[in-house]
Amino acid sequence: MKIFKLFWNLIYKTPIIWVSILSILVLTSAFAPIITDFDPIRDADFSNVLLPPFYIEGGNTVHILGTDQIGRDIFSRMLYGGRVSLLVAGVAILSGTIIGTILGMISGFKGGIWDEIIMRLVDMWIALPFIMVALVIAIVLGQSWGVMFLLLTLIAWVSFVRPIRGEVLSLREREYIQYATSAGASQLRIIIRHILPNISSTVLVIATMNAGGLVLAESILSFLGVGIPAPTPTWGSLVSDGRGYLEDAWWISTMPGISIFLLVMSLNFCGDWLRDRWDPKLNQL
Amino acid sequence: MRKFILRRFISSVIALLGVTLLVFILSRQVGDPVALLVSEGGYGLTENQWEIQRKKLNLDKPVPIQYILWLGQVATGDLGRDLSDNYPVTRKIKEKLPNTLKLGIAAWIVSTLIGIPLGVLSAVKRGTVFDYAARLFAVIGTTLPPFYIAIMAMLFFAVRLQWVPVAGIGEGFGDWKYYVLPVGTLAWGAASGYLRLTRSSMLEVLDSEFIRLARAKGVGNTSIVFKHALRNSLIVPFTVSALLLASFITGVVVVEAVFAWPGLGRLAVEAVTNNNLNLVVGTTLVFAVLFLVINFLVDIGYVFIDPRIRLS
After folding, report:
1. What residues of chain B, 250 to 309, have a C-beta less than 8 Å from chain A?
2. Which residue has the higher pLDDT, B211 or B307?
């Protein structure tokens, strides 16, 4: 009974399920070349077109999730697609975190005209229908990895600024910051040594909470055909590829969508959990 | 109150100018606009004609002046011509806009009618099976990408069960069946947002002092929920509807693309695939204006809902 209760607590009170799903998705994508022998782009097998997954009649265990319209293995395309989706979202959340945190700290610490400019910029940014801006950028700059990183970074940075500014505003008035100032510490030193460590948990919480949204954004852009250019598979473009074959081969679209769902869901739940533990004040959206 | 509205108005105008500036700068990054108008590489165009074209497009003037002139053209409804068939962009947008509005308004009504009551119920019946079911509905609605919901709905209800048509808009409002899937897809996402917000703010209000006072006075439960709590908790979903609206517009673009809905979003996506810059710029500006106007109206509505702002 005790073991059962321990087990129950583990599942119920910690995000262990979500962390496991997340690690499985990350690891399988990272080790895709070891797990599967198929090449996601070149291994087209015209004699095995539109094969169903193995558990359905007509499918086989060589292509466990079936094949697409030109006989490429869906499972391996999903693994390789996950690499792209995870990498893009990961890079974007990193650069977004850095930019957003720096701007938030400047805004809160410097105040005055800096604060005014940065906060108006944030207001304006929130007031943009971002999908349209993304379409304009995609048509002007073309489609490439760089543009995708840029677009997602442009989405990511904005959610950091306001909470971090608020945090810094209250930290700035603390006594130990004033001691540091009167002891002759430079502004840069105060920010790096005394403020940054104190906002790190907030930064991490916001980053985790927004990661899911970025994965979604990437998949939407790829789906609309303005993401990473073909033939590189991403989860969004895989779903898009299967659209024309819904009647004969529903699995082409369905399978990659499940991975997006699992990834976003586990990221969101991990974010919620971190927030509840480290920064309950953020509990608004 | 007048000051509040004025301030909101000014910030909307500034945001609008910011959008136009951004779009202008971006659209000038594609190289010489004259080259877009003529056939490949300016073949068959003399130096002199090229100059005339440049003058016509105001390219001989300094960039800030170009921006102001461009802004003037946009304000008078001149968004240039479609680069593929030389059809005025404004007229194309005018044709498609009503379809997008029909879809958007229908989905918005459905999402409010589902999201807010479910949010209230889930807060009032906290911890019950109903609460968990409602939250599951919301979690799925916010984590599933809209295009995936759309495709799966299409697969089940249109391809397999054949209850509703696969795509298109049908003729007029009579063909309500065409609306079911696009509106349902859009409404699920938006309703999830409303549900979460209403639930959390309702829980907060139900926990507050004045509700406890009302309970202590002996006010009945129905009256507490509807009269005291609901009104106060609706403010939060109302104020953050700007954030919901942004994802709603993304949803509109995606849903139109999937269901071949002849609206602005589909026009924009097609324009991107055909490298049709003027059309993309035009639709972006229309969406931005719609977005800012709705946000501004919401802000004004907010003043009327919440007396604390009206009186301050």
Report:
1. 250, 253-254, 257-258, 268-269, 271-273, 275-277, 280-281, 283-284, 287-288, 291-292, 295
2. B211
ipTM at complex level: 0.84
Q: Are residues B111 and B39 in the same domain?
A: no
Residue A285 has pLDDT above 50, yes or no: no
Quote the domain boundaries for residue B61. 2-75
Give tens-digit pLDDT for B200-243: 888 888 888 888 888 888 888 888 888 888 888 887 777 767 67
φ/ψ region of A66 (left if φ > 0, alpha if ψ in -120 to 50, else beta) reads left
In a domain, B10, yes or no: yes
Give A-chain residues touching B294 at CB under 8 angstroms. Answer: none
Report the SS3 class of residue A73.
strand
* A123 interaction partners in chain B (CB closer than 8 Å): 11, 15
Buried b (16+ CB within 10 A) or exposed e, A226-254: bbbeeebbbbbbbbbbbbeebeebbbbbb
The mean-pLDDT minimum among A93-107, A252-266, B291-305 falls in B291-305
Residues 6+ apart with CB under 8 A from A125: A158
What the block records as the tokens of A100 is 């957003």
- Residues B142, B280: one domain? yes
Count of structural domains, chain B: 2
CA dist., res. B95 & res. B77, Å (int): 14
For residue A249, what are its two tokens? 């081969």
Q: Which residues of B touch A127 (CB under 8 A)?
A: 12, 15, 242, 291-292, 295
Interface probe for B, chosen from A12, A126, A135, A151 (most Cβ of B below 10 Å), is A135
Report the CATH fold assignment for A15-283.
MetI-like fold (1.10.3720)
Residues of B in contact with A137 (CB under 8 A): 26
The pLDDT tens digits of the residues spanning A224-274 come to 888 888 788 888 888 888 888 887 888 888 888 899 999 999 998 888 888
A187-210 average pLDDT score: 89
Contact criterion met (CB < 8 Å) for A131 and B148:
no
